[in-house]
Amino acid sequence: MFETRGATVAARTGVGIGAVSFAIMHLTQSDVVDPVATPVSSYALTWPGVVLFPLGVLSMALACAVLAVRGVGLPREGFIRFLLGATVVMLVGAALFRTGSPMTALTVEAQIHRYTAGAAFVLLTLVGGLATARMGQARMSPAARSGMLWATAASALTFLTTTVNTFLPWLADGGDWRGIPQRILLVTLSGLILALIAGSADRTMPVPVRSLAGMRPDIAPRADAAPEPVLVASKS
Fold first, then answer.
1. What does each C-alpha distance from 206 to 5, 59, 67, 149, 190 come to in angstroms?
2. pTM for this model (two decimals)
3. What are the pLDDT digits (tens) for 42-52?
């Protein structure tokens, strides 16, 4: 079931629903959420983000689940599939547990959300790095390879910037603009998932079979050739 074209469509649709959900949140909640200084998870604290945020995260989890089951088109990719499965668990945790607000204390629920979301970012970036290092072994289109390379590089860079802004907010006043690299990271990781889906789709495509018309005349069977004799055992 996960090797079918329908599974590929479902995975791409999951990424698309996630992108649309986050886009709607940015458009409808611009008056209550500052996209420059506020994390993306803050959209889940007000309407309609309280519904759209978990919807978007779970949709991305669906895409990762398809990849975890059928792989990304690499030989001996058990560890990568394990990382993708762990990413699904982390994304589900980030969707189910909401972050805290600046007016409330850092609750257990908020800590679970932050660590699961961060772990999902780390795991996806690691998957992209491993897949990029080994994509020469895959039957992958040049477009999928190029997309995976650039998406992985951008994800690693933006994740590093987000980490510095989170734990060292005083450095270059990163705490004041930490929302920007986090949103860029969300976009690049979505692109990385799409590149992984493209690679897995290339793997599941059937290998073209040469028709008789394309065979050499000396090896193609002749229509007027006499049938080979069939030996029948005689009765004794």
1. 11, 28, 18, 25, 27
2. 0.80
3. 999 889 999 99
Distance between start and end Cα atoms, the chain: 55
Only one residue has tokens 């030996």, namely: 231
Q: Which amino acid is at 63?
A: A
Give domain limits for the chain. 5-205
Output phi, psi for 228, to 5 deg: -70, 140
- The residue type of 129 is G
Query: What token pair was written down for 130?
Result: 């491993």
For 10-38, write each residue's pLDDT tens digit: 999 999 999 999 999 999 998 889 999 88
Ramachandran sector of residue 76 (left: φ over 0; alpha: ψ -120 to 50; beta: rest): left
Question: Cis ω on the peptide bond leading into residue 102 (within 30° of 0)?
Answer: no
Contact indicator for 117, 185 with CB cutoff of 8 Å: no
Which residue did the predictor score with more confidence, 16 or 216? 16
CA distance 130 to 125: 9
**Residue holding tokens 């080994």?**
134
CA distances from residue 27 to 31, 34, 42, 160 in whole angstroms, order as listed: 9, 11, 14, 27
